Amino acid sequence: xxxxxxxxxxxxxxxxxxxLKTPRGDIRTPAFMPVGTAATVKALTVDQVRDTGADIxxxxxxxxxxxxxxxxxxxLGGLHRFMRWDRPILTDSGGFQVMSLSSIxxxxxxxxxxxxxxxxxxxxxxxxxxxxxxxxxxxxxxxxQLDECVAWPAEESRAREGMELSARWAKRSKAAFxxxxxxxxxxxxxxxxxxxxxxxxxxxxQEIGFDGYAIGGLAVGEGHAAMCEVLDYAPEMLPADxxxxxxxxxxxxxxxxxxxxxxxxxxxxLPTRAGRHGQAWTWAGPINLKNARFAEDxxxxxxxxxxxxxxxxxKAYLHHLVRTDEILGKVLLSWHNIxxxxxxTAAMRAAIAExxxxxxxxxxxxxxxxxxxx
Length: 374
What we know:
Blueprint: E1 6-12, E2 15-22, E3 25-29, E4 31-36, H1 46-51, E5 57-59, H2 61-66, H3 70-75, H4 79-83, E6 89-91, H5 96-100, E7 105-107, E8 112-115, E9 122-125, H6 127-138, E10 142-144, H7 156-177, E11 184-189, H8 195-208, E12 212-215, H9 224-231, E13 244-246, H10 252-260, E14 265-268, H11 270-276, E15 279-282, E16 285-288, H12 308-311, H13 315-323, H14 327-353, H15 357-367
Parallel strand pairs: 4-5, 4-14, 5-6, 6-10, 10-11, 11-12, 12-13, 13-14
Antiparallel strand pairs: 1-2, 2-3, 7-8, 8-9, 15-16
Helix pairs in contact: 6-7, 7-8, 10-14, 10-15, 11-14, 13-14, 14-15
């Protein structure tokens, strides 16, 4: 019996739409999770994020264990109360930092040891400690196993090494997590771009048994085409009756292509990061508000997106804010981008439910990708 029921309402080819039911609310899939790295979706209030239609946020274990610290977070009532978000939260395990912060980390069978990028202090993260921080200190609803995300490109031997360590850590993570009524644990498929390794990883994870399954080790530099090649087979290796989560992805076209291949959940820092640098994602493709051609453009950013930042401010005004480095520009573009990603997933849910996802995919490529959104 799985902790959170997952009801698949409709399928269209390999694409699925459904609902993952949690005590803190339903998560409609396909779902995009805005990233709240340090207990905040950068530049936005939780009310703004909620109003975009987000059902769930992502928190970052590595950053939160450094500041404010897991024990302090527990004393303050957990992550939901701390950041005033009453809907579900998924926390990553800290495993991605094994790769991204490799210059200040050391990996062994037992743990990964970090030197804090903040003050140089030493921290030891074992699978058991990662579960403790996520489930008991932060109080997240969906907990991720600790894994090793192998850098790309990787030789097969190195990819196998990382996959096998992740599988052993998955078993330890499951043992540490135990049986819980109101929290779920996801395992993470690894294996880089090697199909047989991902098959072995999937088999080992299913033998352990998880509430959901993530596809890890992508969006690490391999590019869109190579990612899609992996997604041609990786999702279907995972149980059809459980949610499939593609970690760290991505651009709008990545989401559409992954949903077409059977993925249900996503997260990425792209919407707010792009917004802070003057880029907006729209149905017609991405636009850079720094460009002089917007200086007298009185049209709204994208009236098809149901968000005040998208429909109530002219591109000329947004251009002015970006060029003068006003904080409001970062706020409005981040707000719009999160709203666009939520509008995109809502449109995909509707297209799948109505059996027209292939037509939606073709139209999306014609409108968005052809204008630089690839």
